[in-house]
Design goal:
The protein has about 240 residues and is mainly α. It is about 65% helix and about 0% strand. A two-stranded parallel ribbon has the order 1-2. The longest helix has about 35 residues, at about 185-220.
């Protein structure tokens, strides 16, 4: 009788083991189909937004580069007389604006410039005056000439370029010591180019700033971005300086 009971229990054991195995497989199957956690949001370290060069305003108008690859300014395509007079105007602006002690030679050099080159300067002025009077009549000629002169003065008075402009004026002051009045008209083009060079360099830098800003805005200007703090910001937080 006892043997029969034992045999009956033995026949039930495989059934119990099979049920347990089925349950375990179901549990394991449920774990296998559980979806993985979502990935963390992308982390992007945003570089600083490009800033205008030399403290210039974010928006300003600069002379364009035309199809010939030349940046056209008030000094482009002018006559010899106009080059002489524009050089005088540029030097005048430098004498008025470059007032720091290290630029003291500029004012003295400008005074010498007016006296030493008085004849070619006077000749240039008369030629320019005749040119405007052939294009305009009466008071209109005076207004046109004064308007052009204002453009020239404004061009050489651009604040962001002050330092480079004053340095160019210092170099001009030194060079003029070796220029004879008979050579002055021919020299006026190279002298004017020297005074204009810092402005052209600034315009190139400003155009590069615009391109860099457009690229920055295209990449970082819209949408939501998770920003990773910089190393300095992380250290500041650890030290309690930043909340």
């Amino acid at each position: 009788m006892e043997n029969l009971k034992f045999k009956g229990l033995g026949r039930g054991l495989p059934l119990l083991a099979g049920s347990a195995m089925t349950l375990m497989m179901a549990v394991l199957s449920g774990c296998a189909t559980k979806p993985p956690p979502p990935p963390p949001p992308p982390v992007v370290v945003i570089p600083p937004m490009p800033a205008p060069p030399m403290g210039a305003p974010p928006e300003m108008t600069i002379p364009p580069v035309t199809q010939d690859g030349v940046r056209h300014t008030v000094n482009t395509g002018i006559s010899t007389s106009q080059a002489v007079w524009n050089l005088r105007s540029a030097y005048n602006v430098a004498a008025l604006n470059c007032v720091e002690p290290q630029y003291a030679p500029i004012l003295a050099g400008y005074k010498r410039f007016l006296a030493f080159y008085a004849k070619p300067l006077d000749s240039a002025y008369k030629e320019i005056d005749r040119s405007f009077r052939t294009q305009h009549t009466g008071r209109a000629a005076v207004v046109a000439f004064e308007s052009y002169q204002t453009q020239v003065y404004n061009f050489f008075s651009l604040p962001p370029v002050d330092t480079g402009f004053c340095q160019a004026a210092m170099e001009l002051t030194i060079e003029l010591q070796t220029v004879d009045p008979s050579q002055f008209e021919a020299y006026s083009f190279s002298g004017l180019a020297k005074m204009e060079a810092p402005f052209k360099a600034f315009f190139d830098s400003y155009e590069q700033y615009r391109a860099d800003l457009a690229a920055w805005q295209a990449r970082y200007g819209g949408g939501f971005i998770t920003v990773r703090p910089s190393e300095q910001q992380t250290m500041a937080r650890r030290e309690g300086y930043v909340q």
